[in-house]
Amino acid sequence: MPQSTPHSPSASLLAFFGGTFDPIHYGHLKPVASLAEQAGFERVVLLPNNVPPHRPQPEATPQQRLEMARLAVAGNPLFTVDPRELAVETPSYTIETLATLRKEHGDNCPLAFIIGQDSLLTLHKWHRWESLLDFCHIVVMARPGYQEHLDTPALQHWYDTHRVTHPDALKQKPAGFIYQANTPLLDISATEIRERRHAGLDCSDLLPFAVERYIESQGLYRQ
User: Fold this and answer.
1) What helix, strand, coil percent values describe the chain, rounded to 5?
2) Does position 50 have pLDDT exceeding 60, yes or no?
3) How far apart are CA 42 and CA 62, in angstroms?
4) pLDDT at 4
5) Exposure winner among 73, 131, 174, 186, fewest CB in 10 A?
6) Which pLDDT does position 114 carry in this prediction?
7) How would DSSP label each residue in 51-95?
């Protein structure tokens, strides 16, 4: 397991959180906010995906999903929204976005990419997944109902080799660590919200009011 060096309080770590956000909801926002407090993230950049290569295509348009993300975090200084992946009409490969971000922020800035436990378990299916840690740290948030161990001994060894147990380690080098965060388990999914909307059910407890109001105004997720 990698060992961290003494904490440098002046180090600044920039975290990115990608997703389809169809729609964005509290299951995205509240665990990330808790993670930011736990790990000392000063800013989290939301990266809405345009054409997710491993998932069904979104119901909402790229512009609608971008607007929902912006509405969800309006007035919250922790979050900003980066629309760069929505400007690309080809599949959104995380490795390519991270390579671009690394060039923009330089070789020495610590960068973190936030994923859920569900994504960790399928990370070996991502495009050029073995190179992800060359560009960033990976921070994993808990997800309800998902196993804790990876599928094969080789994958588990990769995880154990790079894992650190304290978030301060993420600020000691620009990339290369995996940190498993103790975030709240919120059993909310965009699929559930879409299904409830299709059935005419209330979703006000699952997502910010501004997002719910926008969904209504756009007539989204109706049969």
Assistant:
1) 40, 15, 45
2) yes
3) 27
4) 41
5) 131
6) 97
7) S-TTSPPPSS-HHHHHHHHHHHHTT-TTEEE--GGGG--S---HH
